[in-house]
Automatic annotation (TrEMBL):
It comes from the Bacteria. One of its GO terms (molecular function) is endonuclease activity. This is HNH endonuclease. Keywords: Endonuclease, Hydrolase, Nuclease. InterPro entries: HNH_nuc.
Amino acid sequence: MAKQSRYYGSGTERALFMLSRGTCYAPPCKEPVLKMAESGTPRVNVQIAHIRALVEGEARYDKNYPEKLRNRFENLILLCKPHHTEVDSDLWVEQYPAEVLLRWKAEVEGGGLGDALKNVPPLNGDKEFEGIIVKSVETARLEILGRSTN
Ligand SMILES: [Zn+2]
């Protein structure tokens, strides 16, 4: 696999959306993770951000952080575009060390399932668990859209 691959696995993305509580991870930002397009279709309104950079030269690169963990759930958060730009910017990066982003992640995900998922390998073929996450994301989506799930 290419070193710069940004493939996270659909389970990892779903877990982030499910645990985001519906907004950008940066406090106190309330930018929703999904927004309605004019067509009436929800569209993704956040970006996946690395806590420690995937490649050298990018924000918060840590050569001691194992490469195989860099695209894992534990190293990823969801940020709105302005916050993603800000935390990765050369101008601001010193204000946003990995410790700050890890605190945001812990606060948003509230330990619990986030901790439980921390060392779980990428979801490959665990259909039952994946199904639970898909259902949770769908429920959260309907709540965001203000529709009853009943
Ligand atoms: Zn934000």
